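Chain A, query sequence.
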Amino acid sequence: MAKNLKPETTFLNLEQIKPETKYKQYKMKNIAIIMGGYSSEYKISLISGNVVHQYLDKTKYNGFRIHIFKEKWVYVDENNAEYAIDKNDFSVTVNNEKITFDCVFNAIHGTPGEDGLMQAYFELLGIKQSSCDYYQAALTFNKRDLLSVLKPYGIKTAISYYLNKGDSINTKEIVAKVGLPCFVKPNKAGSSFGISKVKSEAELPIAIEIAYKEDNEIIIESFLDGTEVSVGVINYQGEIKVLPITEIVSDNDFFDYEAKYEGKSQEITPARISEELTQKVSEVAKRAYEVLKMKGFSRSEFIIVDNEPYMLEMNTIPGLTTESLIPQQAQAAGISLEDLFTNAIELALA
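Chain A, predicted structure.
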């Protein structure tokens, strides 16, 4: 009989319910989708976050777009009105009603979302979140520390040379160690910001200054002449799953910002490599995920040289735009964006 129905089983048009009141009345989960950030990647993060918001299962979740910038943390509603986030408990008040969140979906590329700062903050507050824990985030965001940790597990890497801002620069010493051409990279940055391919010793000081604009630590790596691939690894329905591998063929000198985001590359999924090599690369990517006790998404970049994969880096908040690699790989595996995001949230909540 109708009078015995519980409120959460009543049939209503959820689209007519204000987001800030749905959870309280109808037991739906409030999901904070954090996006933006403090780095050069903030524009890409905003796109990723909006894609998550768009494809969120509206029958299960109330999605809240939370913009995180140095100057403000705000909830942005459907009319682009902004409401300040209370950093004391990561809540927001809308129309005199305080809203708290069951889970945070992290879509911030770069600091403070990918380097462990937000993860540690939510850990202190006891709020569940979709990405890896703070230690893993900090470690993977630091390229040289990540590669140092993984080397003892047999994961191959390029020859590298490290510099901190203020160190003396001995170009002859650098070239003697890593050779030419080589890559100069910010140690803690993404989306290829600040990366240069250096072909002569004279170009090194300029490339180093460019890298220092993004970070006060840099890593200089030997050039690996081989096939570049990107490997997504996720925990899907409780099992670690390696997604179909993507082969990267850049129209530019390397997989730079234009190649990643402005169509100057071919991204071929599955990669045009043998089944045996696919298995080998997948095993290395999965081993890295397991060794680091990862959670959530990871996307690792490799160069294959003489049938051996060399790891370049691991991203724990990879791009989630419809054109990004993880969504492409998920689609090739038969996983829709809605399922991909639902899985991440449900694992976090569990």
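The chain has three domains: 2-129, 138-156+224-349, 159-222. The longest helix spans residues 275-291.
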